[in-house]
Amino acid sequence: MDSRHLLELLADNPVIAAVKDDQGLESALAGSVDVIFLLYGNILNLSELVDRVRAAGKAAFVHLDLADGLTNREIAADFVARRTAAAGIISTRSPLVKRGRELGLVAVQRFFLLDSMALENIEKDLARDASDLIEVLPGLMPKMIRRLVQDTGKPVIAGGLISDKEDVTGALGAGAVAVSTTNPAVWSM
Asked: Which of 7, 74, 131, 152 is 20 to 30 A removed from 177 (C-alpha atoms)?
């Protein structure tokens, strides 16, 4: 999968299931989402988790920072690229995101937008052009989403604290290409 194909999937179904345990994965696999962010797993079961997602006809993204046993070095992206069939990776660390992209994975850089300093750091990190897409948390800030879409030129995924249809439509209306959420009730919207 490349970023263009991912954006096509998200245009048709802009809700991403972010799963943090086996129960959430089961719900996402049975649901109508096309993309699943794996926010859990370890080096022993990541390949199996990704295979389950792919067998359901969905795209799997591994969050490198949250998978047990992976290091915060570029080799984590190599592991996912070589040992799993993941479509892409997610990380807060620019070098990992950049390495994933070099390996042909769709690379999503996650940012926590806490204050104006964090916003400035996003712009600095993106100057390195390591990612295909960015994810900003929390996703309940339409004004900031609009600004990031305009200033970065990158597709933006809004995540964190998305809990109802109003949150989804607010983020999408501000220019986000998708929302990611751990809330199964939102997955079926």
From this structure: 74
